[in-house]
User: What shape does this take?
Amino acid sequence: MAIMFYEKDCDLGVLKGKTIAVIGYGSQGHAHALNAKESGLKVIVGLYEGSKSWKRAEEAGLTVKTAADAAAAADFIMILINDEKQAKLYQESIKPALKPGKTLAFAHGFNIHFGQIIPPPDINVVMIAPKGPGHTVREQYQAGAGVPCLIAVHQDATGDAKRLGLAYAAAIGGARAGVLETTFKEETETDLFGEQAVLCGGVSALMKAGYEVLTEAGYQPESAYFEVMHEMKLIIDLVNRGGLSFMRFSISDTAEYGDYVSGPKVITEDTKNAMRQILKEIQNGTFAREWILENQVNRPNFNRMRAIEAQHPIEKVGKELRSMMSWLQKSEK
Assistant: This one.
């Protein structure tokens, strides 16, 4: 049975008087730092010398130090830089600052679960993972709401690691929406699977395939784009609001009937078997090893695939159409 925590279950006071270091000031970093500061906690941001984010964080009223100095000054250290950069940063800047009783926190379990970071046994290791982009974490907090979070404890050296993690979840607004207890293993493997098989890899491939089928059949690229990509958000917003049943209630009966009879023809048992193989390669570490090695050789395959995907016709047509939608132009920059 799932265990959920809310604001009533969190004591923000356990972090009062402590220093929180947020390492990184990107999408998640800026949201965590600003939300925690506005919740009344003492926050410092850790960045590398020369970071473009240094001035931006200071202008937001935050104290900024190098990652090493921030970690040394902090009681609670939240690492919010890219997965592939964390191990090097940890060895160089975080590990020397880990005095007994400190808490090391993550928003994704990748480096702990796959053994890229192995903290000493006398510190707490926790995860507070918002289930949404950083900009949404910030926007929801400012609106008086929050983005649900996951919490996990990998090491409890002080006996109150979960209480500290819950307090942090409350500070960034997550406890307003709910905090689900999990493990580093479950979060890491399900998160990677969701990204690869459904949310990013699956959806991207599905939209491109639909676009290609329509344009190969002679339909206008613009019509194809609107049907298979632009309307995706409209449908997902309905699902997010009330599940599949609300989405089906909101669309036409014709569309709902098409959902029932055609969905299973696209997502077949072969598709599920491919998903099972993706999950297996996540669970046995194959994906992690490939991604770690890819970064060690300066990402030749990653950069090649990124360049190829950027040239797909659906991207070119979509950019032209979005340029005519004034409300979307800001996000294109």
